[in-house]
Amino acid sequence: MLDWVRANRDDPRHPLIKNRIADRPAAVWFAAYNPGAVTAQVRSVTSAAATAGRIPVLVPYAIPDRDCGGASQGGAPDLAAYDDWIGDFAAGLGGGEVIVILEPDSIALSDCLSAGERQARFASLARAGRTLHAANPRAKVYFDAGHSGWHPAGKQAAALRAAGARSNSDGIFTNVSNFHRTADEAAYARRVLAALGGPAGLGAVIDTSRNGNGPPAGGQWCDPAGRALGRAPTTRTGEARVDAYLWIKLPGESDGCKGAAGTFTPDYAYQLARGD
Questions:
Q1: Catalytic residue among 144, 170, 207, 255
Q2: pTM of the model
Q3: Percent of the chain that is helix, strand, coil (3-state, to 5)
Q4: Annotated catalytic residue 255
Q5: Coil, strand, or helix at residue 185?
Q6: Residue 79: which domain range?
């Protein structure tokens, strides 16, 4: 997106996209399985954030069989390779505050795996949480809780428990790349946390990047029309057990319908910025 903003200053969509999206803090995704390169890439982001006095939000997204073979398929070739990649990722975290959104959909979308594959994935996520905290004790690591329109809170909490979220995370994240209203997500997150149990300090972060108009009719999820930007990113939510509202999915990045999954689509960004 920033490349588009820099290269298209005369585009009539530029002012709105720049002011309403590009100038707001958003997460940085690490979606390539790139052993040997990811440490420096993570370090570049965390070092720049430390210099600017900001808290970076990082999204490792390389779990094997991610997205169940959907538009965002890919990831490491196997869990052993993933464990090594997460170690490389963690080596770039530095020592400052950092928020890690660990593998969107890795738990909520795990029903496509066999029971044995799911158990192995959950064990790998637990190891990842330990690795990230060991590399930087100030890191806050959040595990996947889907969203309020998906699994019942009890089912999601049971999966989170199996993935070690009670002892290897700082809480959960919800609504990534989705559109459910903030109030619904906050209530759902508290239900999941209550069912999960564990330390009282576990909290939740909610993706508010595209939920300003709520979810579309019919459950459409892929670049639906009529959506809008949600609440600006903040760690001051005023909501019990909700640690932050974050822009995890970058507004304007396609889900795979208006463009290739994960690519910036200026028409979609402009639509979200206008809210129509």
A1: 255
A2: 0.97
A3: 40, 15, 45
A4: yes
A5: helix
A6: 2-274
